[in-house]
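INPUT
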Amino acid sequence: MKYICLGYIDPNKFASFSEAEVNAMMDSCFAYDDQLRANGHFKGGEALQPPNTAMTLRYTNGRVVATDGPFAETKEQLGGIMILEARDLNHAVDLISKHPGAKYGPWEIRPAADLGEMARQSEARRGITKG
Amino acid sequence: MPESLPDIHAQVDAVYRADAGRILATLIRLLGGFDLAEDAMHDAFNAALERWPVEGVPGNPRAWLVSTARFKVIDALRRRTRFEASQDTIAETVHGSAAATPDADEELPDDQLRLIFTCCHPALPAEARAALTLREVCGLTTEEIARAFLTSAPTIAQRIVRAKAKIRDDRVPYQVPSGAELPERLGTVLAVVYLLFNEGYAASAGPSLTRADLSAEAIRLGRMLVGLLPEPEAIGLLALMLLHEARRAGRVSANGEIVLLEEQDRSTWDRSLIREGISLVERALATRRFGAYTLQAAIAAVHAEAATPEATDWRQICALYAALLAVQPSPVVELNRAAAIAMHEGPAAGLALIDALIARGELRDYPLLHSARADLYRRLRRNDEARIAYERALALVKSDPERRFLEKRLRELV
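OUTPUT
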């Protein structure tokens, strides 16, 4: 099963880190990612630039309004996402608990939703047929 | 000839389903804990998906998976120790044990028992024991367990995470209890198995398919236990489950209504399960060290042997209930005995016993007490009292088939 793992970080926390500390953190995270990759668990992922680079769009009064900044102003911000292949939820929990990133902020793990059936129904409504 | 990829996937799945519990059991012993063992096992199964299509399926898939898993752990620890000096000691332990015992990949016959006893350890909360056993011993996924228990996957996942943390933190020993400790610890294991069976057996309508699977898992566990540790009560429990299972098809009508034992079409009963159950009951009784499960199985066997409800040997059933009450005094057993006595000596005798239970303040909110009482009043043609008792039972039942059953009985009173 695919699980989407959302890694959160507190951006302020890292301001005080020395270069050596940042390197050690990154090295340990990359090494673990490599291990996940080698065992077929890492199915994709991206790190995110800091929250101040974000734009948020919202449909308000019949039109889309763009604001600068992240959707939610919280102490911990989304720092990256990973698509994880795991046998079940407990397996995903085990794999992510060992991720060095877990020391620096919370992870949220959610199963990917299978919208296949919904998509097929939608296609039928829209008159699309697939061979 | 190289096998096609879907075939290999199906084979790997089949090995997982059949052997993951055994492989995990051996790995936990070899690696000294759930955490390393589980990761390593999953990584080994992934490696099988990659390598078996190329290299062919090994002659002994289980041994291949165990040794691959061990290699994966050493590999993972090597990666990790590059960054975390604190892990050195763990790595040393694993390297050390791997080097010292070259044939340590071999599983021991009691590895699976160790795992079962650990998953059902009394230090764990009762609800965690069932979830842990299903996942680690039976190889079900968290999501499957959640569906079977009609709860959410995160609820089950957390139960399992906490249980494993407790096993680690309390240093629950990974071993099969022996001597004086065994009967009590076996009792805890059998209770988990029986709970699983009943969870699956109680559900009769609606989304019952996954729940019937729970009964199948419980029977699989029961067979495994009897094979590994043929204690009389383990045999008795397996017999009890098989004899109940034999009647599964007859206990619910085509439209999902409950059918009482006396009204069941006995031709729907599974004769081969009954034969197996009866021979297990005889085997357990012959040890003369039997207990409550064996006695309940013996009662089920007497019912199963009767070609018609009228042919039931109620005298024997009453005697078995008396024996059961002696080893397991409980108001529910008393209630069942009262119902048997009502069949043997007449409804008035049964009613007196039930009223005595109520007078002692027992089972006042137990719907089956009120429906049994209603039934006896009905047989005595005391319809007003029967109606009151059925209504009391109706107010207490929780499932729809039970409610419909009681409503039907109420209508029939008029």
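end of record. The first strand of chain A starts at residue 2 and ends at 9.
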